[in-house]
Protein: Phosphoenolpyruvate carboxykinase [GTP]
Amino acid sequence: MTTAPIPGLDRAPTTHRRLLAWVREVAELTTPEQVVWCDGSQGEWDRLTTRLVEAGTLVRLTAKPNSFWCASDPADVARVEERTFICSRERADAGPTNNWMDPVDMKIIMTEQFRGAMRGRTMYVVPFCMGPLGAEDPKLGVEITDSAYVAVSMRVMTRMGSQALAAFLDDEGTERDFVPCLHSVGAPLAPGQQDVPWPCDNTKYISHFPEERMIWSYGSGYGGNSLLGKKCYSLRIASVMAREEGWLAEHMLILKLTSPQQKVHYIAAAFPSACGKTNLAMLEPTIEGWKVETLGDDIAWMRFGEDSRLYAVNPEFGFFGVAPGTDWHTNPNAMRTVERGNTLFTNVALTDDGDIWWEGMGEPPAHLTSWKKQDWTPASGEPAAHPNSRYCTPITQCPITAPEFDDPNGVPISAILFGGRRADTVPLITESRGWEHGVFLGATLSSETTAAAVGKVGVVRRDPMAMLPFIGYHAGDYLQHWITMGKHSDADKLPKIFHVNWFRRGEEGRFLWPGFGENSRILKWAIERIEGTASAVATPIGYVPTTAALDLTGLDTPIEDVRATLKVDEAQWRAELPLIEEWFDTIGDKLPATLREELDALTERLA
Ligand code: SAT
Ligand code: MN
Structure:
């Protein structure tokens, strides 16, 4: 059977043979109406956003330049962890915390899903690079997608298009490797069939093939499921690469902290999704003379430099931040970033004068269009914006982005924070007793679930290094990799590890600590611990500040609340031990012995 050539397929702006062969193979399987190779230009953005407005997917905002409102299908609003698979050849390599399917079986199933899946649609080919383009070993990928929304979002979130494609051949003209990322919303169009504003399928698969370094995603248009450079590549696949190559791919923000004496420290911090990473990364210190700048809000790749210090790079190029709760008080820098335009807002509310609104922005207007595209008034009795609604905005627009965010060598990390959302037990900040105890703090991190993933909200679960949904291999091997990394360097060169919890509650469930800009006081203490100038109390769980060791100048919070949030309640911690035990049992035989020993030692200290 001969089929008509697919328009655009032969207009490839590259000679990279593996890329050409793969694009052809996908086009023949998915049978799109045409193929478009994305160059990342402004003209392309204008074309695609115009088409998306015509299709009813986007609404152009009048209140912000070059910005758009988008409402997804109400059933496609978050990451689908139940439908996320690590398809390693051996089931054991995916470990007990991932869904596994045999790669051959998964490919058979998904090939049938993809067959003809792009009928009536345009297939976009999006070359991208995770991390600075000038890197010695650039981490390349190509996303093939039938979603123009994904193509434009990739332009915000990654270094993409012609500039990325140029890196597919090295200086000698040799073809570099790349991660093939195949995405379809899974909604082919019959001839003459009217499209819907947010096409997707009820059946969803987010599949990773770690040995092949390949990603296949089907059925969802939501960011975490469809912008494949993000969680799929930069965490799940990159964590596998990192283990093999001796580095770390982590769910961490990166910030730069400058003291009044102009001393600079870089801090990386891991929190589960929707626990305030973006707010911390863009914090405005409330203490005199301190300054925070941003390098990243979600992902850090860290490797040892020649000086044996750990250097971090943000692989991304934009922010995909949680909108609700963001405002001029909680995160003015995020507000300034999106005010500059060039931003996609998904599942927030739309005002009648062409602006956006979400819960946390103060008094709502009398009338809105909700994320469900319904008329909304303050009497509606449900949120106008979805709790996992997002803004997708360029990192270069953030007024406090540190210029070194684009340095291929990264920045040397002084401190790593592991944080969760816990109403009790976990104090505001705890310093680990050393690297291995710090890995134990990360390994036993726990947090209440949020709206960032489909499922019940507010349930405490263990979330090692805030990476539970993102570790691309066996969690026991992952924790061993962290222990092994600590052996590559001297204790005084390794980052100091801290455990933080901004979310501890007092009576009537009110938060004990104000958080946001006031967290600068906590960062200051961490830095002073590194420099050896702040005091701490040795407790069974680690080193904790007294209220006197913290800079509380000008803080409104009652001192009893600060004391309560710093309290190490040994009874609560003894109750935590069987939960940690249970979690370690879940990991099974591959749990590093060091971590068992840490648990035994903690149990003894609490006895
Ligand atoms: O949905 S994303 O994975 O893109 C963001 C998050 O959940 O951390
Ligand atoms: Mn995240």
Summary: The radius of gyration is 24 Å.
